[in-house]
Each structure stands twice: as C-alpha cells, then as structure tokens.
Amino acid sequence: MRTIKVVMAFCLLGFSANAQNKDSAMFKRIADDIFTNSKAYDNLRFLCKQVGPRLSGSPQAEKSVKETFRMMKELGADTVYLQECMVPHWVRGAKESALLVDDKGTTFSLNICALGNSVGTGKKGLKAEVIEVRSFAELDALGEKGVKGKIVFYNFPMNPTNVETFRSYGEAGQFRGRGPSMAAKYGAVGAMVRSLASNIDDYPHTGTTTYNDSFPKIPAIAVSTRHAEYVSAELKKKKGLQMYFRTECEMLPDVKSHNVIGEIRGTEFPNEVITVGGHLDSWDLAEGAHDDGAGCVQSMEIIRVYKKLGIKPKRTIRVVMFMNEENGLRGGRKYAEVATAEKNKKFIFALESDAGGFTPRAFGFTAEEPVLNKLRNWVPLFKPYGVYEFSAGGGGADIGPLRPLGTTLAGLRPDSQRYFDHHHAANDTFEMVSKRELELGAINMVLLLYVVDQYGL
Amino acid sequence: MRTIKVVMAFCLLGFSANAQNKDSAMFKRIADDIFTNSKAYDNLRFLCKQVGPRLSGSPQAEKSVKETFRMMKELGADTVYLQECMVPHWVRGAKESALLVDDKGTTFSLNICALGNSVGTGKKGLKAEVIEVRSFAELDALGEKGVKGKIVFYNFPMNPTNVETFRSYGEAGQFRGRGPSMAAKYGAVGAMVRSLASNIDDYPHTGTTTYNDSFPKIPAIAVSTRHAEYVSAELKKKKGLQMYFRTECEMLPDVKSHNVIGEIRGTEFPNEVITVGGHLDSWDLAEGAHDDGAGCVQSMEIIRVYKKLGIKPKRTIRVVMFMNEENGLRGGRKYAEVATAEKNKKFIFALESDAGGFTPRAFGFTAEEPVLNKLRNWVPLFKPYGVYEFSAGGGGADIGPLRPLGTTLAGLRPDSQRYFDHHHAANDTFEMVSKRELELGAINMVLLLYVVDQYGL
C-alpha cells in the first residue's frame, strides 16, 4: 500500500517506477561499499591524531592542507588543487589560568580558556570584582555604575528543553559573540562566558567573540559549565568576590593559507558544478573530530566510492576542504569569490557537513520552493538509510556565500543531542566519533549528490 | 498544508483537533520536565558506579533490587513491591586466559571471555589444534574427521551493510548460541566465537550460549574482533596452530531473586494494567549502562514526571525492573505467569526499552493491525521528539511472555549504530551514555504510555 503510494507520487511527478528501482539499487551499492570499504574513519583518525588541532595560521592547519591534498589524490580525484586565501592568525599563547578569590584571599582555580579572536590580559593578568548577569537586560539595568571596572560573568545556560540543540546554541551564543563588547560599553575590564555546552562538565568551550569597534576590546574567556555553576553559587553566598585571570592570546597579521579542492569532471555538463565540503580548520584546543574533521572525510568519500563503483557524474563534483570557518570564514568567502568570477560555470548545488559525525536524520535546504518539492520526492529512497526529512532552511557557513549565485544549499543534519558536549572543547576527539555513524552520514551525502547529479534541479 | 492533512487524519479517525492540541501541549510539558528535572541519568550513574555489574545471582544483582526499590519509592510510586523468582546462578570464576601457540612454541595472548552459561575448562585448561569456519555448512563439510579433538573457531563478522545493526546481530548470533553444541556434535573439545561486535576493537563480548543436551557440553569462549582477525590471519600463514585456553566458569544451583515493581494506580480503570520496563540484570563484565540500566531508569521516569506534573493515569501503570533477561528470562516469565493468574486484571499494553540509551528513532509494535493503525495516528505528535515511525514487529524479551494474554507489545527503537560496540562487553559503561539521548528516549516512552493510557487501544 505504502509502496504503491510512493510509486504513484513518483509517476505523478515524472519519475518512473523503473527509474526509482534503478536508483534504489544504486543507493544500495553505494551504501554497501561505504559501510564495507570507506576510508572516512581512517582519514579522520589521521586528521585527529597525526595532524591534530589545526587553527587557521597554525603549522597543523598547513599540514592538514598538504595531507587532504594527498588523500584526495589517493582516493582518485581527477584533479586536486589549492585555492589561496589569507586567513586570520590568532594564537592562544602561554597557558591560561583563572582564580576566584574571596575576601579572605582563599582562591579556587577555574577551568577556563580564552575566547577565539579575543585580546589577552598580558603576563600580569587581570584582577577585578566579578558580577553575574543572565541577560543583556540585566546588564543594561546595572549600567555603568554597576559594571565599571568589573568582570562581567554571563551565565546563560543552553536551554535543555529544545530537542534541537542548535536552537539553544543560537539563543545562548549571543553572549559569547556580543557579550564582551556589551560589557565593555559599560566599562567592564573583562568578560567571562558560561561555556556553550549542553552538559555539565569540566571542559571550557572556546569559540569566536566579535568585538564592536565602538568600545574597548576587553579580555574574554569561557568557563566550564561546572565552574559556571560553582561561581554562581559562590556569588550568592559571598559579597564582593574577585577574579584573577591571565590570557596571553593575540591576533597576529594575516597569513596565507588554502582551500583544498578535489574534482571529478562531469561527463555531460562539466560546467555545472556540484560542491560538497566541510571545513579543515578546527579550534586549537581540540582534535576537531566532530567539528569538522568528520565533514571533511565524509565529503571526500564520494571520490572514493565513485571511482570504486565506476560511477561517472554528469556534472562536475567539487569536494572542498574549506579553510578558516571557525574564526573568519575566509575560505568560504574566497571560494564564492572565485566561483562568481568563473562566468562559464554554473554552481547549481552545494552540500556541507558541519554538524558533527553523528547518525544522520535529515537534510536542510536553502532552495526555492519548487526545487525543494522536487528534492522531497526522493525522501522515500533515503528512509532505509535513516534520513526521514528534507526540511526548509539549512546549508552551512562555508557554502553560504554561494547563495547569491543562485546555488541551492544543503546541510546534513545529524542527530544533535551529543554535539554540544564536545563542540570547541578538548574532548572533541576521534574517540568520540562512531565509525558507523560517520559512514552513515557519508552514505546519505553521496546519495543526495547522486540524485542531484543524475536528475539536476 | 501538512498541518491540515494531519488534522484531517485525526478527525477522520475520531480524534478532534482540539484533543490533538491538548495532547501536544501535554507532550511539551512532559518533555520539558524530563529534559529539566529527570533523575534518569543520576539513577543510571548509581546503578553503574555504586552497584556495578549485576549478573543474576550475584550480590550486585541483589543490591540492584534493593536500590531500585528505593528509587521507585523516592520517585513517588503508590506502591513498590518485589516479585520472587528463581534465577540461574552462573559464575565466571578465576581469571580467564587464552594463548595461540605455533609449532615453535611461540605464544600470543588473546583477549577472550567465557560465554555465559558455558562450562569451564577447569584449572588445567584445554589445549588443541584450532580450526576456523565461517558457517555451519563449512563445519558440516569438515565433519567428524576434520573437527574431532579440535577447537572450532567461528569467525562470522557482523554484516556491516545492514543499516539496522540488530539484523546483523541476529544473523551472526546463531554461532554464539548453537555453535558450541554444533561443534561438539563432531567431537570438538572447545569452541571460540568471534565477538558479536560491529567494530574492530579489543573487548571480548560475552552472551549466552545454549547447549543442546544431545551432545557433550564443551567450553566456549568469545574472542575480541581484533584478535579474531589476528587468529584468522595466522591460520592462513601457519599450519596446525594450537590454542590453549582456561576458563573456570560454572553453573551453580538456582537462587532466589526478584523483579521489582512500582505502581501508579489507575483512577478510572485500575484493573487495566500498562506495563513498562527494562531488565535489571547485566553481564558480569559490564556496568550494564546501555544493556539495560538505561531501560530501567527510563522506565522509572514516568513515576517521577507523573507525580511532578500531577498527571493521574486512568489505568494502572506498572514499572517493572525485570530480573534475569540475560541468561534465563526468568523474571519476564514469572511476571507473565503471575499476570496470567490475576484473572481480574487486563494487561492491555507493555513497553520495553532494551536496545540501549541512544537517541530514539521509532517504536516497534506487536499488535493487531487495527491497533497498530490506531497507534499510528499519533505519529505526527511524536515527530518533534525524534520518533518518526511506529513499525510492525517489536517488543522486548521480558514482555514477550505477556503476548498470549493479548497484550499489545511495544519496544523503543533507539538508533542502533553504536549499540554493538558496547553490548555485553566491559566498555558498556556509564560514560558511553549521553544524558540527552537517554532522556529523549524516556520522553518518548512516557509520551507513548500517556496516549495509550488516555485513549486506550
């Protein structure tokens, strides 16, 4: 009954049941081969353990460029090349530390890290009274009188009641992003943000803060969720608590880096380009396994499986390792800039995986309604592989700049429950990735690229 | 458009849009409270870390009875009581070991463990030539001539191409279950089975073997997947390889144990019983976090959240911690036996969670077609909580014996990709469970029980 409905839906929309069966068989061939022969997990191990943390501008970031260039060659890409871009070069510097200090001089050491792109305190560090706020409204109410000369502690937990954790991340993220400058506006000398983590543990989670040039740039740190709770409890018990913290991070001049691009040339419409990628850079504290080594190695998998199964794409498939998503997005912008200049090419579709190597559940699309509706006809074929939904809205930071070219954007949406336990923290390690979950994500990505390539949009 | 369709479906089937909105609001209240105040994760930590491995007949199993009795009292159950049952008492005994020995006397130590319910070799151990087979057909082809006096090594990997890992477990499981006796039939003196694991690592995975009384009971062990690959490779290189292994496990006389039952009494139909549970016992090698501490603590959550939100069930809710699922199923059988004798009660529905504390994806039902169709009308309300499918077939080992009473059976179906990395092995630990995934499972279980209680079947 259900099958009949599916077949009818396909017929009505111009797909024949025969095509459906053929595609279903091809889906199975692709999935079986990835589950059996994928290099994604081994490549991820290499990126995490042999290259390691790879913040833009670091030697490891350069090593990751070289190594993914090699990987795509070995996987059998027709061509692999580099695309130069300048990237910010922020460095964390010497070991960071923070102490909570009460009026008797008793100290308690806090698990903290500097926020990305933030200024440091310098060697001497910074000591001041710490005050807690839970919203910008509270900050505004305190005003200059309550804030000046102090360290503002933003203690806004990620809302546990959103099933989709990215939503809670979006809500809480404003304090990391704008918080330091909003505090500086009222004369604060430092800012500390509760880590954007959905669990209670001891890892501080870094991530970019964005200074507003109208206000002084003040040192900014993140504190582990457990210690955020601790500081908050202490503040309720004791008056005039002070904090000392020291960070020696700094922003150095931009340096040259690269996106890495591997291509399989299209046989029928070589000038129509389908882009797929993840970002190569990671935070300096983490192996960048889920964020976003996973997306990189999943994206490369199409080269391996197409060569292995002898699938020749009609359109050109470009696998892109984007540089600098974390603290500048320069790679994504450069890719779109070059694409815009390639007047003879049409960038019809781009897919990004940058939400972790977890079990896939859906794809999100930024697309015109008729395109999305056309894509949705394929959902029944994806269900056996765990993807039940093609939803409106989605893509990825690196491919976002392609949208003005009319490119349809897609983002893999894996299950999000564990993502923010690891995101931007030292426990984003290879061991936290399940081989099968990673591969199932890669499978669905290749399947989506397959139908887009075969049938166009 | 989609909303209209959903509403229409509800109206056609006798549900009003109003009821749907009311239920949707209640779903949100339940989910929010579990994500915010659940005790499931803390209770699981207690079971794993303060009680630990709890094989039937062990002191820890008895401790788990006492502690879950306390937990359900504390959560606010109207009554909590024990249901006596006799359970097998298999003990692993002294430390197990195994060596691969070549003709030069070079030895290689293998990661092994005795299979549950198996006989041991005794202190002296067992030494014999080892031969590998990949199927029962291969074993039959070798016959007595090829097998007699040897150790049979069943090296059948779990098929990686099944998206649903339980399917591969089912296919590979026959070698652990029947393999030793099938080998003994041809005169083998011992059996070694490749661990039922979907990854390659160093943990041996135990689990029950079932002897056929027609043949001698021979000692049986599982070997880690990595060492299964190693032994296989060595067998290809060297002739006449021998193995030595020693296990001192034994089956002792049955002992008394208990199911633990917590009830919330129904207000309208107290004699209609809705059962929900997991199993309290675990293998002795593991903390039993995913298998099945998770199912136990998820099941208890309905008591907490109903009391907290003041929800009074129409029907009686029985939360059951089943004893002895792993190597006897005596708890499940006893529960059904007692239920059969309770002539004044109707056991309308039973739900089990015994597939790990992973992110939920579906429920599986053993139900008559009209019942399943009725249940399926609720699927749209579950989608926001990650459950997209109510499928035919499912339940759980412990609730299975209720089926002859006409009970509709349901099983939570979490994502299965990681389950067999941990199943029955020492790495089935608390740390491998995500708080949010565990809670999301509990949420969906309570939601299902809620609609069944409110609307009946």
TrEMBL record, chains A, B:
Domain Peptidase M28 positions: 259-439
InterPro entries hit by this protein: CPQ (IPR039866), Peptidase_M28 (IPR007484)
Keywords annotated in UniProt: Carboxypeptidase, Endoplasmic reticulum, Glycoprotein, Golgi apparatus, Hydrolase, Lysosome, Metal-binding, Metalloprotease, Protease, Secreted, Signal, Zinc, Zymogen
Subcellular location: Endoplasmic reticulum; Golgi apparatus; Lysosome; Secreted
Position of the signal peptide: 1-19
Gene3D superfamilies with a match to the protein in the record: 3.50.30.30, Zn peptidases
Domain of life: Bacteria
Gene Ontology MF terms: carboxypeptidase activity; metal ion binding; metallodipeptidase activity
Any one GO cellular component localisation term in the record: lysosome
A biological process term (GO) from this entry: proteolysis
Oligomeric and partner information: Homodimer. The monomeric form is inactive while the homodimer is active.
Protein name: Carboxypeptidase Q
Taxonomy of the source species: Bacteria, Pseudomonadati, Bacteroidota, Chitinophagia, Chitinophagales
